[in-house]
Amino acid sequence: MTVTTTVAELRELLASDAPPVVLDVRWALGDPHGRDHYAEGHIPGAVYVDLDTELAAPPSPEGGRHPLPDLAELQNAARRWGIRTGQRVVVHDDLGNTAAARAWWLLRYAGHAQVTLLDGALGSWRSAGLPLESGIPADPPPGDVVLRAGGLPVTDADGAAELASSGLLLDARAGERYRGEVEPVDPRAGHVPGAVSAPTGENLAADGTFLPVEELRERFEEKGVGEARRVGVYCGSGVTAAHQIAALEIAGFDAVLFAGSWSAWSADPDRRAAKGDRP
Length: 279
Known about the structure:
Low-confidence stretches: none
Structural class: alpha/beta
Number of helices: 11
Radius of gyration: 18 Å
Largest sheet: 5 strands, parallel
Distance between the termini: 32 Å
Shape: globular
Order of helices and strands: EHEHEHHEHEHEHEHEHEHEH
Number of strands: 10
Mean pLDDT: 97
């Protein structure tokens, strides 16, 4: 299944008789001004999506900082964005798609398979010299998409612990957070015991596009993906882990998302935190 759409492909699609819905998921950790950035300049016709309120349920110790949203609420949001049954959707952010992948994963998880990431994110659109529009446009005509869970696998902390011991659990956070040297947002520093460090940023080339398939495959095989019976991924709160799952799919591998991720694991005092370079 195709994971990405190029800028050239998106241009053609937008000019076609059946244009896609373009979702702008402008979000970054510590930056609450995604809507303002969107208003300053976005792909013409793109719909702003708020990650904190539309792509996640309210935070909780059990669910982490970005629990999966209620499916009915996600369906209502998707219809507000204008998504119709069977319609193509292209999602992006302005950060290498490390946030937009959450929308990609959620829609796939909820059974809407016709969704891709704009390779290179908004930067690729800018680099191509293509126009942006400013302001907050009127809401699009409502869609009629029907969402059902089960399109992609997901697990909880118990499942993550099992993956770390009998499969392969990848930690998509930056290396210093994996090692427990810093922890800017979650209750404790460290990583799930047995997890292997695989920072999400290493999936991308300098221009923000995904690395070539062969390079991604080699990267993940070096982490043990090819030999593992099952593969899982987590990050801080289940957002950038979705990007890792997209990269794994490009490379030809399937993976399970630990949705609560480190924010849920570290909030449970009964779960041990490992530190250092080793799993």
